[in-house]
C-alpha cells in the first residue's frame, strides 16, 4: 500500500514539474519574440537546403522519381501536342510555309512548330504564320530558333553537306524538354493528318527510338548499296527526310559504334563519327544516321514508303507497293521537283496546296483543281501514278470537313 502511495506522489511531482516546464517555455516565447524569428528563419534555411539537395539529385534526369510521385499529375500534364521540327536555310522559306500549311490543314491534335532558320528569315516566318486566319492559328503554336552548333566544332558542322542540314542531328540536345519530335525536310507535304505518323510512337517497342522509311525499294537502282563508302542501314539505307524521334530515348541511349569498343551517348558520338567518315559521306547527315542505325538496327522502326514518297518511287516505274494500295500519305518532293518541270505531278500538288485559300471548301478549291492539273501530267512518269497522290488526300479532305 505504501508502495502505491509513493508511486502516486512521484507521479504528481512529475506532472507538476512538467506543467511548470510548459509554462516556463510559453512565458519565455512570449517574452522573447526574437527567438521565434530566429527559429523560423532557421527552419526556412533548413527547407531551402533540403530543396537544393533534392534539385541537385534530381537534375541528372531521374525521371522515374517524377513518374512515381505524380502518377495522376503526370497524366494531367502530359503533352498532347504534336511537335514538328524543320530546318530552313537559303531560299526555302516559301516551301517551308507550304509544308506547315499542309500540316495544319488536316491535323487533329494541336501542333507545335519548331522552326530552325537563319536569323534573317525569322521575321518572314513570323509574319507568314501570323497572317493565317485566327481559327487556323488556334490549332498551332510555333517557336523560331537560330541555327546553332556545338561551339567548339561549329565550322566543321556548317561545312558538312548543305549549310544547315546537320542541324537536325542536334535537335535532341537543343530541345531538351521535348519528349518526341517529328522532323521533316522543307520539301515535305502532308496529305493526311500529322496525327497518323505521330501514332507510330505508340507502336515503338522498348528498343525503338526513331522511325524512318527506306531510301529505296528497288536495290538494282538504289544508291547506298551501289555507291556508299560507309556502312548503311538494311538493304538500301534509310531516308531521313521524314524522321520520327523519341528524343528522351535518344538522350538516354548508349549507342554501339565502330569508333570505340564502349557504347557512346548521342552527343559523344556525333563528332568522332564525322571525323571518321567525313571524306566518305555524300548525303551529309543522312549518311551519318545510316551509319548509326547500321550499328544499332534494333533502335529503328522502319515505316513503309508511302510515308515518304519521292520521285524515285515513280520515275523508274512505280515501285512503292504500299502507295499503290493505300495512296501517298506524305509527299517528299526532293530533287527540287516542286519548282521545276521535271515531275509536274509533284509540282501540281505543291501548287494546289499553296493556292488553296484557308477557310474555303477544300473539295472545290484544292481537290478539284488538283485533279484537273494532274490529268495534264499523265504523259510523265510520275503523272502516270498521280491517282496515288489524291487517293488518301480525298479522304483527308472529307474527314477535315466533317471535323471543322
Ligand atoms: C498556344 O500557347 C498558348 C499559350 O501558352 C496556349 O494557351 C494554347 O493552348 C496553345 N495552343 C496550342 C494549339 O497548343
Ligand atoms: C572510305 O572509303 C575508302 C574507299 O572506298 C575506304 O578504303 C575507306 O575504308 C573508307 N573509310 C572508312 C572510314 O570507312
Ligand atoms: C518516349 O520514351 C520515353 C522513355 O522510354 C517514354 O517515357 C515516353 O512515353 C516515350 N514517348 C512517347 C510519345 O511514346
Ligand atoms: C524491336 O523491334 C526491332 C525491329 O524493328 C527488333 O530488332 C528489336 O529486337 C525489337 N526490340 C525488342 C526489345 O523486342
Mean pLDDT equals 84
Instruction: Work out the helicity level.
Output: 40-55%
Ligands and ions found: 2-acetamido-2-deoxy-beta-D-glucopyranose
Structural class call reads alpha/beta
Total number of beta strands: 11
Strand content: 5-15%
* CATH-level-2 architecture of the largest domain: Alpha-Beta Complex
In the CATH hierarchy, the third-tier topology of the largest domain is known as Spore Coat Polysaccharide Biosynthesis Protein SpsA, Chain A
Give me the strand/helix succession. Answer: HHHHEHEHHEHHEEHEHEHEEHHEHEHHH
Major beta sheet summary? 7 strands, mixed
Task: Give the uncertain stretches in residue-range form.
Answer: 26-76
Helices, by number, come to 18
The CATH class of the largest domain turns out to be Alpha Beta
Strand arrangement across the biggest beta sheet:
3-2-1-4-7-6-10
**Rg value:** 30 Å
Biased composition (Basic and acidic residues): 43-54, 64-74
InterPro entries: Glyco_trans_8, Glycosyltransferase_8, Nucleotide-diphossugar_trans
Family: Belongs to the glycosyltransferase 8 family.
EC number: 2.4.2.42
Amino acid at each position: 500500500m505504501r508502495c502505491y502511495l509513493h508511486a502516486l506522489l512521484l507521479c504528481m511531482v512529475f506532472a507538476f514539474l512538467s506543467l511548470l516546464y510548459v509554462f516556463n517555455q510559453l512565458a519565455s516565447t512570449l517574452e522573447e519574440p526574437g527567438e521565434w524569428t530566429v527559429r523560423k528563419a532557421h527552419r526556412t534555411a533548413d527547407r531551402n537546403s533540403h530543396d537544393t539537395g533534392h534539385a541537385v539529385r534530381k537534375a541528372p534526369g531521374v525521371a522515374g522519381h517524377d513518374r512515381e510521385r505524380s502518377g495522376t499529375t503526370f497524366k494531367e500534364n502530359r503533352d498532347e501536342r504534336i511537335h514538328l521540327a524543320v530546318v530552313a536555310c537559303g531560299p526555302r522559306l516559301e516551301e517551308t510555309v507550304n509544308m506547315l500549311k499542309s500540316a495544319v490543314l488536316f491535323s487533329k491534335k494541336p501542333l507545335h512548330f519548331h522552326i530552325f532558320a537563319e536569323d534573317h528569315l525569322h521575321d518572314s516566318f513570323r509574319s507568314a504564320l501570323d497572317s493565317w486566319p485566327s481559327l487556323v492559328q488556334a490549332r498551332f503554336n510555333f517557336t523560331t530558333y537560330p541555327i546553332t552548333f556545338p561551339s567548339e566544332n561549329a565550322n566543321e558542322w556548317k561545312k558538312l553537306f548543305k549549310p544547315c542540314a546537320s542541324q537536325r542531328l542536334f535537335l535532341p540536345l537543343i530541345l531538351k524538354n521535348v519528349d518526341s519530335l517529328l522532323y521533316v525536310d522543307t520539301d515535305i507535304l502532308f496529305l493526311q493528318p500529322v496525327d497518323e505518323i505521330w501514332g507510330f510512337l505508340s507502336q515503338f517497342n522498348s528498343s525503338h527510338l526513331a522511325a524512318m522509311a527506306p531510301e529505296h525499294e528497288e536495290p538494282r537502282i538504289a544508291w547506298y548499296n551501289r555507291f556508299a563508302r560507309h556502312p548503311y542501314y538494311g538493304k538500301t539505307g534509310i531516308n531521313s527526310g521524314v524522321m520520327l524521334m523519341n528524343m528522351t530515348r535518344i538522350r538516354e541511349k548508349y549507342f554501339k559504334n565502330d569508333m570505340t569498343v564502349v557504347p557512346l551517348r548521342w552527343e559523344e558520338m556525333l563528332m568522332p563519327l564525322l571525323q571518321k567518315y567525313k571524306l566518305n559521306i555524300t548525303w551529309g547527315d543522312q549518311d551519318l544516321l545510316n551509319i548509326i542505325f547500321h550499328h544499332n538496327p534494333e533502335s529503328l522502326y522502319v515505316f513503309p514508303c508511302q510515308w515518304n514518297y519521292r520521285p524515285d518511287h515513280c520515275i523508274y516505274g512505280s515501285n512503292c507497293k504500299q502507295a499503290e494500295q493505300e495512296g501517298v500519305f506524305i509527299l517528299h518532293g526532293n530533287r527540287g521537283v516542286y519548282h521545276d518541270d521535271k515531275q509536274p505531278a509533284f509540282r501540281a500538288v505543291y501548287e494546289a496546296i499553296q493556292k488553296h485559300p484557308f477557310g474555303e471548301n477544300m473539295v472545290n478549291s484544292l481537290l478539284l483543281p488538283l485533279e484537273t492539273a494532274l490529268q495534264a501530267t499523265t504523259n510523265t512518269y510520275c503523272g502516270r501514278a498521280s491517282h496515288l497522290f489524291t487517293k488518301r488526300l480525298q479522304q483527308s479532305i472529307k474527314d477535315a470537313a466533317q471535323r471543322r
